[in-house]
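Hi team,

As requested, here is the filled-out complex form for the iron/sulfur cluster run. I kept the field names the same as last time so the parser does not choke. Let me know if anything looks off before we queue the next batch.

— J.
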Amino acid sequence: MTTTTTSFGAANTAVLKDPKIQIRSFDGLRSSNSSLALTRNVNLFSVSSSRPSLVRAVSTPVKPETETKRSKVEIIKEQSNYIRYPLNEELLTDAPNINESATQLIKFHGSYQQYNRDERGAKSYSFMLRTKNPCGKVSNKLYLTMDDLADQFGIGTLRLTTRQTFQLHGVLKQNLKTVMRTIIHSMASTLGACGDLNRNVLGPAAPFARKDYQFAQKTAENIAALLTPQSGFYYDMWVDGEKIMTAEPPEVVKARNDNSHGTNFPGSPEPIYGTQFLPRKFKIAVTVPTDNSVDILTNDIGVVVVTDANGEPQGFNIYVGGGMGRTHRLETTFPRLAEPLGYVPKEDILYAVKAIVVTQRENGRRDDRKYSRMKYLISSWGIEKFRSVVEQYYGKKFEPFRELPEWEFKSYLGWHEQGNSGLFCGLHIDNGRIGGKMKKTLREVIEKYNLDVQLTPNQNIILCGIRKAWKRPITATLAQAGLLQPKYVDPLNLTAMACPAMPLCPLAITEAERGIPDILKRVRAVFEKVGLTYNESVVIRITGCPNGCSRPYMAELGFVGDGPNSYQIWLGGTPSQTALARSFMNKVKIQELEKVLEPLFYYWKRKRQSKESFGDFTIRMGFEKLQEWVDKWEGVVSTPPKYNLRLFSDKDTYDKIDELAKLQNKTAHQLAMEIIRNYATAQQNGKGE
Ligand code: SRM
Ligand code: SF4
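And here is what came back:
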C-alpha cells in the first residue's frame, strides 16, 4: 500500500463531509459560510437498535493477504508472550536501563525509558510513567498518591498531559515496581497508557450533573474498559499476578466477548488484540455537542453523544481518522482531521468502536510505523470503503450522521456550579507542570477538603465537589501559590500548550515547555507594540518536534521544532479547534520570531474583519500576502511604558506582587498591569466584585 495524499488533500476530504467543520481552501480563500450544509451520508438500510443483530446487506470480512515485511516492533510483540518477555528478565538485572525489546514492551505497561539529554557523558537513565484516567477522572486518593510518588521517586513535579493523564518523570529502574504497585493499589493503572493499543480515552472533564455529560463520561469509561488488555501481563509484572481489577459493567464484557461478526481471536487471552495488538497507538475521544474541550477531530475515533429534545441520550455520531503526527520533509506524512463515519444507536456504541478498531487491526500497515496510524488507512481507502469494511465487523449499516451545532472550545477555568449544589473550580496550570509552592498548595487544598479532581485535555486541573462555603478560603489559598482565577492570567497563557520536549523526550529537536514562557512574553510584547489590547488573544501551541503532542497543527499560531532553536510556523487553526493549520515558514530562528510575528499581528490589528480571529484572518489573507508583509517589514516604533511600579506601591506590596509574578514567570509590572486591566474591564462590564 502506498500513501500519496498530501496533508492538504487529506484535510480537505475530512472537512467536506461535516457540515460544522470550517471549510478551508488552500489558495488562501475561505468560504464565506463557516457552517455549510454539505454532503451527508445516505443510509439505504433500516436498522434495528437492539443487540445482538443480524448482518444485513453486508458480507463476512475478508482478511487481507499477509504482509511479508513487518517492522521490528511487530516481531518483538510476537515473541513477547503477550508483552512479558524479555521485559520480565530485564527488570531483574542490575543495569540502570533495559534492552531495546524490553523498551518497546514497557510502553504497553505505561512507561518509557528516557535519559537526561542536558547531561554529558554516560547516559543517566530513568523511566517516565503515564497513568490512564478515562475522561481525566482522578480520585482524591490517587491525586495524593501521585503527589507523594513525584517527591519520593520522581523529579519532584507532576505533569498533566494533553490526554488527561499524569506523567511522572525520573523514576529509577530499581523503584519501578514499588511505584507501579503503589499506583495499582490506589485503584489506578498505567496499563496501556502507551504502546500499540487504545490510549487514554478523552471525555469532557467538567463534573456537571447533566445527563449528557455523565453519559459521555460513562461511555468514555466503558470504551476504555472494552479495549483494556486482558492477558494479565501488567498484573504479573508489577503485583506478582495479584488480581486488582474493578468489576466491569456487564455490557462491556458482553461486547468484548461477542464474536458474531468475526472480530475476535477465539480462545486468545487477548480476544480483541491477539498477539500483535494494533499496528500503532490508537486514540479515542467522547464528548457532547458543542463541547470541543477534547479536540475531537484529532482522534482516531471521535464519539459525540446525540440527545433527544428532552436531553435524553439516544445515540452517537462517530468521526474517524484524525491524527497529528508527521515527519519533517516527508509530505506523505501529515496531520489530518477526523471525518464523519455515521450514527449509531446508544446500545451499539461498543460494537461500533470495536468494529473500527478491528478494521484498523486487520488493515493498518505493519511494515512501516510512519504510516501505521488509522488516518493513513482511511486516506488511502477513502471513507466509503472504510465504512463498508467497518460495517462488516459491526454487522449493520451506519445511520446518517446527525446534524450537530457549532463546536466551541470550553476550558472550564474558574468557578462553576455543578448543578447538584456543589461547585467546581478549573485551574490553569502552565503546560500542566505542577511543582514547587503550587504543588504543595494544591495538595493541601485537595487533602484538606477531600476533593476529587479531573484533568483536562489542555493540561489543566479541575477541583470537584466543592461546597459554596469553601469557595472564598480555597480561592485565597490558591492565589497565594500563583494559582489565580482566569481573569488574572494572561489570556495568551490560558489557551497555550507546549509538550515536555527537552531534556527528557528522546525525540525533541528543540525546546518547547522550557521555551514557551519566554515566547508568550514576547508575543505579549509584540501585541503591545502593534496596539493589540490585553484582552485579545490567539491560540498558541508549541512542540519540540513534528509529532504534535500538544496538537500544534490545530493552533492559530503553531511552533513546531525543526532544528536547534528553530521552528516551523503553522498558521490557520481556529479558537474552536475545528480547522487544520498550514505550514507557513520553516526554520525560523527563535531569536528572530518578532520579524515574523510583528507584521502578522500588525496587519491583523488593522485589516481584520469584525471579531475575526487571527487564524481566520491568516487564511482569508492567504499565505502569499502574509509572506509579502513579512518580507517587506521594516518595523513599528513602540512607546516604552512611562511608569515604574516601585513608585506606585509600598515595598511590602511590591515584594508580594514580585513573588507572585515569579511563580507565574512574569515581571511584577506585567502582573500588576494584568490585575489592573482585568479589574477595570470587570468594572466596565458591570461584573465588579
Ligand atoms: Fe506524544 C511520542 C509526550 C500527547 C503524538 N509523546 C511521545 C513521547 C512518549 C516520546 C517518545 O515516544 O519517546 C513523549 C514523552 C515526552 C516526555 O518526556 O514526557 C510524548 N504526548 C506526550 C504528552 C505528555 C504531551 C503533553 O504535553 O502532554 C502527551 C501525553 C498524552 C497522554 O496522556 O496519553 C502526548 N502525543 C500526544 C498527542 C495529543 C493527543 O493525543 O491528543 C499526539 C498527537 C495526536 C496523535 O497521536 O496523532 C501525540 N507522541 C505523538 C507521536 C506521533 C504519533 C504519530 O502518529 O506519528 C509520538 C511519536 C511516536 O509515537 O512515534 C509521540
Ligand atoms: Fe517529544 Fe515531539 Fe512529543 Fe514534544 S512533540 S513531547 S518533542 S515527541
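Two things worth flagging: Residues 492-632 form a domain with the Sulfite Reductase Hemoprotein; domain 1 fold (CATH 3.30.413.10). The longest helix spans residues 668-684.

Thanks,
J.
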